[in-house]
Amino acid sequence: MPVASEKTGAMSSRSSRIAITADRLVKRYKKKTAVNDISLEIHHGETFGILGANGAGKTTTVEMLAGLRTPTEGTVRIWGLDPLADRARVRQILGVQLQQAYMHGALTARELVDLYRSFYPNPLDAEQALAMVDLLDKAKTKFDNLSGGQMQRLSIALALIGQPQVVILDELTTGLDPRARRRIWATIEALEEQTVILVSHAMDEVERLCNRVALIDAGRIIALGSPQELREKAGAATLEDAFVSLTGKQIHDEENEDSTL
Amino acid sequence: MTSPADTHIEPRRPGAVAWLRLTQAEARMTVRDTAGLVVPLGLPLLILVMQAISFDDVNQQLPSGVTVLSYYLLPVVVTLVIATIAVINMPSFLAMYRKTKVLRRLAVTPASPAMLLVAQMVVSFIQVLVGIGVAYGVAVLFFGASLPQSPLTAAAVLLAACAAMYGVGMIVASVSPTPNSAVAIGLIAFFGLAALGGMFGPVENLPDSLQQVAGWLPFASAVEAFQHAWVAEAVPAQNWTVLVLSAVVGAAVAAALFRWE
To answer: Which residues cross the membrane (chain B) (predicted)?
Structure first.
């Protein structure tokens, strides 16, 4: 995988710099512990994958990293800042694509891009943002009238529009056709200076894009390493086999796993 | 280990362009939702025309120098415009944004969901002015209505009435879990307040006990305050108190109960 190794090379020069720290994160709901003592250090310039079966705690984890949920215990730091207490600072360097997030449905793709551009000090050019996700020809189409895949692509463009230093992508290419997936992968691969957290069910995507991967099961990290290290650890030929071997579960294609907790 | 946090990030809030774009977005959402404009603009107009053609004495001059229509009917119609937009429309927009996770999406940008709330209020205030303009234009053109004899007092009452009705609207938005329930609760609140405030006939026709209750509710207080503005009399302190209290209570309830998601 030449692209992944290029990314690894770009990252190694900055590997001593920590972009994101999660320290002993716990999230409890009334009857369930969704995240149970997760600690992470993600390096500047790294693309970090989070893999897990439905309900494993992936989305809850990244929502705490993004400052959307308050941890029951533990701390999060993005560039050394608390995403809850230093909201105004963190939001300037953070770009988030949420799982199943909706937009103002009556606005066109271009109007949404212009709206989200206005929130950031140094945004991408509007046409550049639409071209990046192949939506230039849909600029005048209302969000409500876009297909599911087009909505997803626009959501990715809006996550990247502020030229964020830290990008969180939850189910990056779910619902996209193969051509669109490859286009989006190329866009993510071009983010060499940024730290990317990728939550995905797609093993090929994780193998191609991620420097390191955390396997999460029942709210805990059960394995952490590069895709190759995970395969070797499990004695498996593919990352999917490694996942099944390490978790004892099949990965599911369904969405919306733990976001409803 | 070092951290990218060594780079200083100013806690920059979105500026005037972001406020403008967000207000534009809300305005476009409102204008493109044609069905949503029918009730706040059409219902008060319908009630104005029905009442004006149903009674023979609407053009009769009162001792204060204004007609029956200007003194009794226009204050009710103006208050109806405010109440339909603030108590029915605004909460349903907020509930829809909450359900579709638009507020959640904004929460991961430098713009806060509170900015959307302010933009929504600005747009709904413009709707109020348009609604009042349309109703008043019809009243002047076809039924010989007059301007309030004290325009400054009328403007002050308009602001106080809007604040009071938005207070009620925020309570509705705070206790409504879904868009449908927001409309249902909003309609109940609207008709309850309007029935006790003169929509179906003068408050003086209500039983004494209900008149007492009505006097402490924002709809009847707004109508009575507008009546005083129309004949250039001082607005009773009780009317101001009720309008301000409604706004304060609404804000307090919203602060305690309103959930962005």
So the answer is: 34-53, 73-95, 116-143, 155-175, 182-200, 240-258
